[in-house]
Amino acid sequence: MKLSPTLTDPLASIALHCPDCRVALHRVDDGLHCPQCRQLYPPRLGVPSFSDPGYYYGTLPRDRVGELIHLAGERRLDAIEAVLQDRRGAKVFLKSFDESFADGCLLLPLTPTSTVLDLGCGFGAISLPLARRCGRVVAVDATLDRVAFLARRAEAEGLDNVVALHADGLRLPLAEGQFDCVIINGVLEWVGEWDQQSDPRTVQLGLLRRVRQLLRPGGVLYLAIENRYAAELLYRRKDHNKLYFTSFLPRRAADWLTRKRKDKPYRTYTYSQSDYVRLLHEAGYPNLEFHCPWPRYQDPNAIVRAGDEAAFDFFRRRILARRQPFDAAVFALLQRLGLHWWMAPAYLILAERE
Amino acid sequence: MTEHRPLSTISRALLQRIPDLVDVASFRRPLQVVQIGGAGRRGGRVHFAVVDPSARPLLFARLARDPRDSNVLIEEERLLRQLAAHPALQPHLAALVGIVEIDGQPLLLERAAPGEMMGRHLWMAALSRRLPADVAETLPILVALGSATRRPLSPSDFDAQLLEPLRQCCRTLGGDSGRFDAIAASLQQQLGAEPFAVLVHGDANPNNLLVEASSRRAWLIDWETAAPGLPLHDLMYFLSRYAYLGGVVPWGSKAARVRAFHGENHWAAVAARQAVRRYCEALSLPAATVLPLFQLHLLAKAALKWRTSGAERKTTRTWFELYRHFAAHPPVLWRDFAAPGEVATTPQP
Questions:
Q1: How many A×B Cβ pairs under 8 Å?
Q2: Chain B residues within an 8 Å CB radius of A318
Q3: Which DSSP category does A61 fall into?
Q4: What is the C-alpha to C-alpha distance for residues A209 and A205, in angstroms, rounded to an integer?
């Protein structure tokens, strides 16, 4: 199978490297070829593929995603909602058509010529809105079906500046220094699961350092991630391991509890605001800016820059109080104690490579 | 954390540009910005509120999520300038600052109206009690809008410009076009030789109305969907929001929706009829047009959703199902509207 024709041109404009030897890949008739290790990377479902096609992550059953890829290929995007109505696991998928997912990206310094990497792009909730605002978007995901759907959706929406790649986040087939911006939205906390041998923080640090290499000097990393000490983890939301309170425990205690209750280690590390500062400084991002999205970073109703007290007051009284009165009361108390930024649900972090 | 060069672009640029655009001498500083997400759909808007140290909003800026929609904001600015020239409408519009271009993207900048959202009270228990007061504040704005923008059309233009798009929508979504033709014919017959169009706000719901508690002054905001349309549309839509939107009645239960508004809800029904009667008197609209205009406003809403979200989206379907239901079963509330009206028993706010 050949690369689908719409993907060939944008693909030529980004530099692809062999994920093992870091040597530029050659394009041959049946895919991409590494001249050093002689490895051939054939396209799968019309997408350049560098990873295990058997890997699948998602709430929708895999055969159903196949059906959606077919619908998107036929440019019947508006039929998708009707097909999935009331289906189990469809909510996450349908939400990916909600353009507010990408609202956080309005914080980014993007121009119509910027090149952006969306790491862990899923079905394209962020990649596609971004593609309308910048020069080129490279969308990478480890689940082949998701990237294949994204490629067809971009085609159906007439966006020819999206390059979809099927690749593992720890083995990215991309050359260094070519991105103005890298998006890591709801991915970093899961990175620990990808490499079971090392300490989760080490794996996360490794990814952040690798991303730093991919950025141009002055490029910006956009990191959207939960707060370890989010107030709502105390009364509403479960941690990533589907247990309550574990993020508040010391790591070893959380690990013991997760092994006991879920029969697996605790590897989905999130951090406090100051620990994110430490992690990102260590990874080589000296200039950081924190923003707090409410109620989640996925589809924020409001985004307030951490430290802007008047902005937070306005948000709490005018927006939060109307939509979530209980949360508004909790945050009124936390603000009085000076803890509101430390217990925000999540952070959008802009981190600049020096 | 250490002080550093700010990275986020739009809010920073906005704060830098404000002193050139607005007289900031009266503002307490420093100003800060909150980004507020609007509706999530494709082509939606993102809002930026500029607040002073006491958290009072001073300005609102609106940005199109999709840069290709930016011309909509520019057109809206032009429209708002035209509307502000009408003395009856001007007090009900937020003061316009204009279009600000940041990084090549236009933002529509307006001063914040001092009122609070009318829709904040829309919860089940307060609903019927709120309607008389809310409609009393809204009606003058809608009457002023209708009178100021009233434009006579020839019967053939009326059919081509206002009814044909609805007919097409009805045909595409699978309605009974025979019934549509009967409704349209009855409307045209009642309007006689002098049909007219008015500017329709398109989304005159209680969340787009701001009311100042002390002066009872009201502002209508968010004119993005404004377009020429049928008279009475905005008022009917405003009233409909009390009947079946805002999570007040579950979407699924049609019977409950109908009962809540079109039958047994006396407070709301009396106030609604009185408001419609006043609107008709102000625009010399025959009373017998009220039923067809009520039915067509549901179809017009479905047609708007059809254009912006597609035929198969849930919102389009829901409005279209409402149209189909009320086209087949004209509600008592509007069916006997031509009959002598009831005594005005609406409590004053």
A1: 124
A2: 57
A3: -
A4: 6
Q: Using CB atoms, which residue from A108, A287, A315 is nearest to B5? A: A287
- Look at residues B224, B190, B278 and name the one whose alpha carbon lies nearest to residue B43: B224
Buried b (16+ CB within 10 A) or exposed e, A274-298: eebbebbeebbbebbbbbbbbbebb
Angle between helices B266-282 and B233-244 (to 10 degrees): 170
Please answer yes or no on whether A99 and B4 come within 8 Å at the CB atom: no
CA A335 to chain centre: 30
DSSP letter, residue B162: I
What is the phi/psi pair of residue B102, to 5°? -125, 125
d(CA A116, CA A182): 6
Place of tokens 């709490």: A316
Per-residue model confidence (pLDDT) at position A298: 86
Of A288, A303, A314, the CB nearest to B57: A314
Contacts of A79 in chain B (CB under 8 A): 312
User: Cα(B320)–Cα(B174) distance, rounded to whole angstroms?
Assistant: 9
Q: Which chain A residue has the Cα nearest residue B8?
A: A107
Asked if residues B295 and B323 have their Cβ atoms less than 8 Å apart, the reply is: yes
Share of chain A above pLDDT 90, in %: 67
The mean per-residue pLDDT over the stretch B329-344 comes to 64
Give A-chain residues touching B65 at CB under 8 angstroms.
99-100, 102-103, 129
Strand partners, A162: A137
* DSSP designation for B207: G
To the nearest whole Å, the CA of A193 is away from the closest chain B CA by 30
Question: CB atoms < 10 A from the CB of B254, how many?
Answer: 14
Q: pLDDT band for A1, please (50, 70, 90 cuts).
A: very low
What is the Cα–Cα distance from A173 to A22, expressed in whole angstroms? 8
pLDDT band at A2 (very low <50, low <70, confident <90, very high): very low
Instruction: Identify the bridge partners of residue B235 per DSSP, sorted by sequence position.
Output: none
- Interface check A99 vs B, CB under 8 A: yes
Let me know: does A139 contact A202? Beta carbons within 8 Å: no
Tokens, residue B247:
């999570």
* Size of chain A in residues: 354
